[in-house]
Design brief:
three-stranded mixed β-sheet; alpha+beta; about 15% strand; three-stranded antiparallel β-sheet; about 50% helix; about 200 residues; 3 helices
């Protein structure tokens, strides 16, 4: 048998199959399929950024509007109570006018003025209670430094020691806070008798 041997001949470089340096077929399809979602994501990102900027601007406007409203409320916070107090002031003027009125009887004039002042006081107390201001009871109560200021102490056989004997100025509470402490005289108990 005769063996036929195939001789391998070197490949001529010119005969080699040329591979294009920039293959356009496969990569261009891949590029388009990657580019489309990338474009969509970019558009979504821009839309989200725009929406975020709008929400931030709306929030800033809302914040400024609330600050203006709070400033206005603080500026005119006492308006309602002042309006109510004007009625009390009118009643006080009327009471004073009664005292100045021409009358033959001085005691009748004084009685009329005191009646007007009493009604004015009751109206003022009613107005204060309407807005949550209440008087503090002190006389006869045990001394409480959270609600009362002791101006002095006096001996008393009727009022026990460390109890309020009398008030110089009434104390008031506004809702759950002490608005003004009562100014009081506190009993030190009965006087000690000295043996001679």
């Amino acid at each position: 048998m005769v063996e036929e041997t195939k001789e391998q001949q070197p490949v001529d470089p010119e005969e080699e199959t040329a591979v294009p340096e920039e293959p356009g077929g496969v990569e261009s399809v891949v590029d388009e399929s990657v580019e489309q979602p990338e474009r969509n994501l970019q558009e979504e990102l821009e839309a989200a950024e725009d929406k975020l900027l709008r929400v931030a601007a709306e929030f800033e406007n809302f914040k400024k509007r609330i600050e203006r409203e709070q400033s206005k409320l603080m500026k005119y916070a006492g308006e309602n109570i002042l309006r109510e107090l004007l009625t009390t002031l009118d009643n006080l003027y009327r009471a004073i006018d009664q005292g100045k009125a021409d009358a033959d009887d001085a005691s009748a004039k004084l009685e009329s003025m005191l009646e007007g002042l009493d009604l004015t006081q009751k109206g003022l107390v009613g107005t204060l209670e309407k807005f949550g201001v209440e008087p503090l009871d002190a006389v006869g109560q045990e001394f409480n430094p959270d609600e009362q200021d002791a101006l002095t102490m006096e001996n008393s056989s009727e009022v026990p020691a460390n109890h309020v004997l009398r008030e110089f100025a009434k104390g008031y509470r506004f809702k759950d806070r002490v608005l003004r402490h009562a100014q009081v005289v506190v009993s030190s108990g009965p006087a000690l008798e000295e043996d001679a």
